[in-house]
Structure formats: C-alpha cells, structure tokens
Specification:
Largest sheet: 7 strands, mixed
Number of helices: 12
Radius of gyration: 24 Å
CATH architecture of the largest domain: 3-Layer(aba) Sandwich
Order of helices and strands: EHEHHEHEHEEHHEHHHEEEHEHEE
C-alpha cells in the first residue's frame, strides 16, 4: 500500500449486551466524520454480530496458527484494516470483556496500527475503560492517538441516539483526521504484510516470510501458474488444479488453508500452504520461482510449514504428481515416504512423515 492510498479504518463496537448504545454511537461517528473522510474508508465490526467465543485457540496468537474459522475470519478482518476506532462503554471501571477477548485472539494483525477511542458512560464518560484498553493495545504494538471522544450518556444521548451537536461532530472529525495522519506515519513500519514474519534466517539473503494477505493473491496466482508449468510437462497433463484455479477460488482458500508467502527484495518468489487433515498436517502448493530454485528455499519453506503443525497432528502429509521425480526426491530427503491413502487424486502420489515431538513452551 502506498502512502497516498486511503486509510482503511475499522470501527469496532465493543459492547455485546442487549439494549446497548454502542451501535447508535458508532452510527453517529460514521455519519459525523463523513465530511472529513477524504483520506479514509470506514467499515464497522460489531462484536455482538461477530460472536467470538472465549479464547479457544490451542496455539499462542503470536504463532499465527489458527484452528477455528471464527479466528481466521476475525484475523482477515483485522489484518485488512490500517487503523481502528474502538467504541466502548465502561463496565466497573474497565473495558468490556468482549473487547479484551477480541484483542487477545490475535497478535501480529494489530501491530503498528493506530487506534482511537470513542467512549461513553455516566460519571467518567467511559474514560476509565479507555485507560484500561490503552494498556492492552500498546502491548499489541498498537499506537493510541491523543484525540478521543468521550460521551456522557445523560448529556450526549437522547432516546438511545446521539442528537446533532456541532461540538461532538467536530470532535469526531478531528479524531478521524488525527487517526489518518498517524496511519500514514506508521506505514513504513508495516512494509511487510500484516502476518507473521519469520525471525529465522533464510538460505539466501533478502528473504522475508509472512502469512499471505489479500493483496498478495494476484501475484501468488501468477507465481503458481508459472511454477506448475514444469509439473504439467513432467506429468504430461494440463489438468492440474493449480493451473485451473481462479483468483476467487484462491481467495476462498484462505478460509481453510494457512498460506505463507516468501518475498526476496520485495518480489514474491515462493509460497506454501497447510491445514489439518485426517489427524495430520497437510502441506500443499509448495512453490519456488524457477529462477530461484536450487538454492534451498523449498526445503527451508517446507521446514517452516512443518513447524506450524498443531500439537494434535500426528504426522505431516502431502501430494505430488506421480511423475514429479524432482519433487519426490526433495520430500524423501526431508524424511517423507510414499504411502497408501484412500483419497489420493488421480495421477498423484501420497507421502507422509511422522511428526517429531517438540518442546512445549508455556504461554498461559
């Protein structure tokens, strides 16, 4: 994303209880800021509609390994945003549990993004909830801005709505203006996609590994088709799923697969994906740009995908073409063996590898 692109602002409605004022206050903020929105697009996420359960992911959020679709959907929503406006009440001097829970589900998706608060309440107008939330968001590497809007319910609402107020409307617009300004300033810190960037050195210089983001998909599809030309020649068929896949299908696959992309000096040069399957960890679409092959990127990326397997996985598994001798040799060197399976696609072979137990690190 360039510095001239509009900032994508996600307005998060924190309260989930029946009879809440949150949706009305969020609607007011969206309407009031419309005249000041030249540098931003605004979307709304209502935690009551999103319906996240209490944190139920077995892996630490910093791993980026998500078992449940509700987590992956929330991850995509947050990762797509450049900045946030949190509309929150105050409950017993603190923020709602639903908001804390929504923060805790994710980690890297929040980082280096500014956040503004629109609070509401009685005596303190919700400001104590904001102070509590700021401790959490700064730990997630978010940047709370100085401008806020604090609404005292008795003074700022009527019949469950926020009536027109020049002063409040101006405060909302100033808050959005500051938010978009800080968003532009923070963009250099997010030059990598908002996914998990590996801290392990690659086999060649300039490699950066991260979870795939929507903006990667068009380039990923081009790389995929380029890489599978060799597979088509080796297996004497063009009827291969990676060659038939459309951009919409690739986008849909993000809901069921974790996909990692590797860039070298900004160029997409490799990718792999994985998901749980029949008690194992199925790895697929391992690809390296033809001009980058032979330097260890494929083996390095395969090892990374293996490390992302959940604790419940008993083995690693993958498929490749039955005539793809180069691939088969790569996998056999990595410890895989040809095995029999019931769901092997026509013209393919199945390889598996026992999952090595790893040391468990307690993370709460």
């Amino acid at each position: 994303m360039s510095s001239n692109d509009p900032s994508r602002v996600l307005v998060i409605i924190a309260s989930t209880r029946p009879g809440r004022l949150g949706p009305a206050i969020a609607d007011w903020f969206v309407r009031a800021t419309l005249p000041a929105r030249a540098g931003a697009t605004v979307d709304t996420a209502d935690l009551a509609d999103i319906g996240l359960p209490l944190l139920d992911e077995p892996e630490h959020p910093a791993s980026g390994t998500y078992t449940h679709e509700h987590t992956r959907a929330w991850s995509r929503r947050v990762a797509a945003a450049d900045a946030f406006v949190v509309v929150t009440p105050e409950y017993n001097y603190g923020m709602p549990a639903a908001l804390k829970n929504a923060f805790d589900f994710l980690y890297h998706e929040w980082a280096w993004k500014p956040v503004a608060f629109v609070s509401y309440g009685n005596t303190s107008a919700g400001t104590r909830a904001v102070q509590m939330a700021k401790q959490v968001v700064t730990t997630l590497k978010m940047v709370p801005i100085g401008a806020t809007v604090a609404l005292r319910i008795a003074d700022s609402t009527r019949d469950g709505q926020v009536p027109p107020s020049a002063g409040l409307d101006d405060a909302a617009r100033r808050t959005l203006a500051e938010l978009t300004r800080v968003t532009s300033a923070l963009r250099p810190l997010r030059v990598e996609p908002a996914g998990r960037v590996t801290d392990t050195a690659g086999p060649v210089d300039g490699l950066r590994l991260a979870l795939a983001q929507p903006d990667d998909l068009a380039e990923l599809l081009v790389l995929q088709r380029c890489c599978w030309v060799q597979e088509a020649l080796a297996n004497e068929t063009l009827d291969l799923p990676p060659l038939r896949e459309t951009l919409d299908e690739l986008r849909e696959s993000l809901s069921t697969w974790q996909v990692w992309c590797v860039r070298r000096h900004g160029r997409l040069v490799a990718a792999v994906r994985a998901r749980t399957h029949h008690g194992g960890w199925l790895i697929g679409r391992l690809m390296v740009a033809p001009d980058q092959s032979g330097n260890g990127i494929g083996s390095w990326l395969l090892a990374h995908a293996e490390r992302q397997a959940p604790e419940s996985a008993t083995h690693h598994a993958l498929f490749t073409g039955h005539r793809s001798s180069r691939n088969i040799k790569l996998y056999e060197r990595a410890g895989y063996a040809l095995t029999v399976a019931d769901d092997i696609p026509e013209g393919a072979v199945h390889l598996t590898k026992p999952r090595q137990p790893c040391r468990t690190v307690a993370h709460g």
